[in-house]
Amino acid sequence: MTKTALITGASRGLGAALARALAPTHHIIAVAKTTGALEELDDQIKSVGGAATLAPMDITVDAAMQTLCRGIHDRWGSLDLWAHTAIHAAPLAPASMIDAKDMTKSVAANVTATTTLITYLAPLLGTKGTAMFFDDPQAGAPFYGSYGATKAAQIALARSWQAETARTGPNVHIATPKPMPTATRGRFHPGEDRAGLNDPMTEAARLIADLNL
User: Fold this and answer.
1) For the chain (length 213 residues), average pLDDT per consecutive 10?
2) I need a surface site. Which of 37, 142, 157, 169 has the fewest CB within 10 A?
């Protein structure tokens, strides 16, 4: 029976790389807001003999996530792997000048949606599934107020879940990816020389190997 892997934030960057790397061994359930990017990912997955289910959804819409998880349950009954790469990267700004709308979006995507997804996906992962979260320790760094605070909150949620499930499962794995030339990093570091950054596919392979799937 083919294993299943849900990638939230699958349209580009690390999420897309993880989807491509897992495609030979997992049916990919790819979630992202950008339909065109998901269709491009689907072509890449098919090129390596894999198969994907595309879910052009916004993780901050509760009804959409209910539909997604019900669909996973009805079709497969369970989920083997969830990799959560979706993130809202608000523009860098001094703490005294953080835009209220940017902060609201950051909390909704990085904290509230993560909480919702953990609640909905825990039963599907059961005791044997694996959830992957990706740390980016920018909390307290200058100008990273909204991103750093909400990303830290997201990882705090993951660490609590990890501690709670250490004996019972699912396996909650928290990794810190090496710097990659992603769109998120490009927003924070425009004009950066990307030659020394790590290839997303190479990094995805390393992170998957650490799971011992």
Assistant:
1) 94 96 97 96 95 98 98 98 96 96 97 98 98 95 96 98 97 95 87 88 96 79
2) 142
